[in-house]
Each structure stands twice: as structure tokens, then as C-alpha cells.
Design a protein that fits this description.
Helices cover 42% and strands 12% of the residues. The protein has 365 residues and is α/β, with parallel strands linked by helices.
């Protein structure tokens, strides 16, 4: 099983996984090198220890407690595999294809994107779930996405806060305005209606497209894509679709890890990933759009694979996951106002005092 020397020395030169039904020349081994490029120096130094500890444990080892899990901010952004078999070995994940097998430390994963031709065992899904990673099944050429994730907290504090804010017109509008304010840093949008905000946002996005078209020399007309046929779009539209899919996956992972609902959106509504789209839209202009244009300008043979590679680098460089976690908490309320999000308790709702203790009998009241 061979590796790429350039990948070992530079994250930017790291190779990509096998894509589009074709095996990578160096198989999944190269994918492992590419994915580990997201880790900081401390994480890289601990990778062997994590792997050794995982192998030392038996499959019957109790799942880790939430307090033992790696925070979402400190995990790998995402890894993508297709046409392979994902299994469990002790408390690690193994990924195998015709070129060989690699081990992944499940505790360090945030998003595992699984493309066409991927088989996953029950035990692999078990260890992924126990370690709080999000699994995304990506359709052919990245067109569709089906996600599963587990919170990295026992608390429902942020979820209740989210539900409360989205259920009141005034508070929902306030959060939506804060989302737009994050995109218009030098302007005051606190007095604008949702209709006005949508108009301003539409004009801003068109300007972003024109800007990167001029800077990269990539021709731009308009955003068009076919959900049913990825290859029908232009190269830049395919690049944008692939980049946005990566961003949606990361946003979904962070939202679920914090214990929030992907479906309770403030700007978007009516879809199971409304809040995912809300959060992802905050970063498109500085992340997925420029990455898509810059990648399209390079005219790679496989635009989807190249975009995922460049997105992974950009996510790392921008410290996106820690920013995203902080931004979500800020949008739902100042962190100082929130009770301990790591608290592990179950109470009973009371219409007068809010909450009473669970686990006791109230039969004599």
C-alpha cells in the first residue's frame, strides 16, 4: 500500500480519495493522508496514541462518556469515501478497497461522507455513533445528502432555546437580522424587514459571484443545477454544488453536536435541514464560493474531487468548526446567559415553576 510523499510534507499537495467509480491510484491509503492534513500539530502527534488505545480496547468495551469525547471544534472537518467497505476493528474504523485497509480514529471524526458503492457494517455505525460523529450518505456525484448525527451533549438547553426563539415572530426576526448582520458587517440592518433583507442578500451574493468570476477568469452567467443530474451543469456550477454540499455537511455536524435541531430554521423554513441552510449561508461568500471558483479555474479532471480537497484545506485554514460552534451559540443567546450545556439531568416540566425533579413519586400531591 503506497503513499504520496508530497502529501506527507504538505497539506496543499495531499491527494484525494477515489472518486466517480474509479479507484485512486494509491487507494484509501492516500485518503487517510489527505484527511489527517486537517489535524493540528498536537492532534497529529496523538494520532498513533489514539489508534493504539483504540486497538487495545475490545469490542465489548463500554462506549465513552460524553465528557471523554473530543469537542466538535477540535475534530477533523470531513472525510469522503466511496466504493469501499467500512468496518469496525476494536474502537477504530477501518476503510478497505482493492488497494488495502486503513484505520481511522473514530473519536477524531466530525463528518464521514460516504459516496456511492460504500458498504458499512452495523458495528462500524455503532462505534461512529458512540463517538458522536455525523454520517452523511452522499448521492451520485454529490447531488443528494442523507444525514445522521448524535449530540455531543446530554443537555437540551440550546434546543429549547432554539425552539423558543423560532416560535415567536419577534425573537425569530431578531435572530434572522443577526444572521444578516454577520454578512453586512459595516451596515446597520436592525430596522430592515425580511423582504428588504432578502433583497439585500440577493444583491450581495450576485456581487460575490461577479467578483470571483473576474478574479479567477471563470465565466459566470447564473446559478443553475439539476438535482437529478450533476453532470448537466457547467463546471463552475458543479464546483459550487460540491462545495456547498461539504459546507452543509459540516454545518449539520456542528448543529447536531451542540444538541440543536437541523430543522428549526430562522430564515429558511419547511425543510428538515432549514437551520443547516441558515448556518451554511453565513460562510458561503468567504468559503464555498471562492473555493468553487478557484478550483474551476484550475480545470481539474474531476471537479467534485478537487473541490472537496480544497474545501478541506480552507475549512482548516479558517478554523471554521470552532467559529461555527461559537456563532450558533451567539445567535441563540449569549453564552453567559445559557445554563451549563454539559449538564446531565432529566427533569419534569411544570407549568408554574418550570421544572421539578424527575425520578420521584408525586402520587401524594
Amino acid at each position: 500500500m503506497s503513499t504520496n510523499d508530497d502529501a506527507l510534507g504538505s497539506r496543499a499537495a495531499a491527494p484525494v480519495f477515489g472518486e466517480a467509480g474509479q479507484a485512486s491510484p494509491n487507494g484509501v491509503a492516500e485518503g487517510m493522508v489527505e484527511g489527517l492534513g486537517d489535524m493540528n500539530s498536537e492532534d497529529k502527534g496523538n494520532t498513533g496514541q489514539v489508534r493504539s488505545r483504540a486497538r487495545a480496547k475490545s469490542s465489548g468495551t463500554p462506549p465513552p462518556e460524553l465528557g471523554e469525547l473530543v469537542r466538535v471544534e477540535d475534530r477533523l472537518s470531513f472525510l469522503y469515501f466511496e466504493h469501499c467497505i467500512v468496518k469496525r476493528e476494536d474502537n477504530a474504523i477501518t476503510v478497505s478497497d482493492s488497494e488495502g485497509t486503513i484505520h481511522l480514529p473514530a473519536a477524531n471524526l466530525s463528518v464521514l461522507m460516504l459516496g456511492p458503492g460504500t458498504d458499512v457494517t452495523h458495528q462500524a455505525m455503532t462505534v461512529i455513533g458512540e463517538n458522536g460523529a455525523t454520517v452523511i450518505w452522499v448521492g451520485e456525484r454529490g447531488v443528494r445528502m442523507y444525514a445522521f448525527g448524535k449530540p455531543l451533549t446530554h443537555s437540551s438547553i440550546l434546543l429549547q432555546r432554539q425552539a423558543s426563539l423560532v416560535s415567536n415572530v419577534r425573537s425569530r426576526l431578531a435572530v434572522a437580522r443577526r444572521m444578516y448582520q454577520m454578512r453586512f458587517l459595516n451596515e446597520d440592518v436592525s430596522h430592515l424587514t425580511m423582504q428588504q433583507l432578502r433583497g439585500r442578500e440577493g444583491a450581495r451574493v450576485r456581487q460575490v459571484y461577479r467578483r470571483y468570476s473576474q478574479e479567477t477568469g471563470v465565466e459566470w452567467d447564473k446559478r443553475t443545477y439539476d438535482h437529478e443530474d450533476f453532470d448537466q451543469g457547467s463546471e463552475i456550477n458543479k464546483a459550487l454544488s460540491a462545495a456547498h454540499t461539504c459546507l452543509y455537511g459540516i454545518a449539520h455536524s456542528v448543529i447536531v453536536a451542540l444538541g440543536c435541531s437541523p430543522g428549526l430554521g430562522f430564515v429558511h423554513v419547511g425543510h428538515e435541514r432549514s437551520f443547516v441552510y441558515d448556518i451554511a449561508d453565513l460562510y458561503k461568500a468567504e468559503l464555498s464560493i471562492p473555493v468553487a471558483f478557484e478550483t474551476a479555474a484550475q480545470m481539474p479532471e474531476d471537479i467534485g474531487s478537487a473541490v472537496r480537497h480544497n474545501m478541506r484545506d480552507a475549512v482548516y485554514d479558517l478554523s471554521l468548526m470552532s467559529r461555527m460552534a461559537k456563532d450558533i451559540k451567539d445567535l441563540l443567546g449569549e453564552e453567559a446567559e445559557l445554563p451549563d450545556a454539559d449538564a446531565d439531568h432529566v427533569g419534569l416540566w411544570d407549568d408554574k415553576v418550570g421544572e421539578v425533579a424527575a425520578g420521584k413519586s408525586y402520587g401524594n400531591e
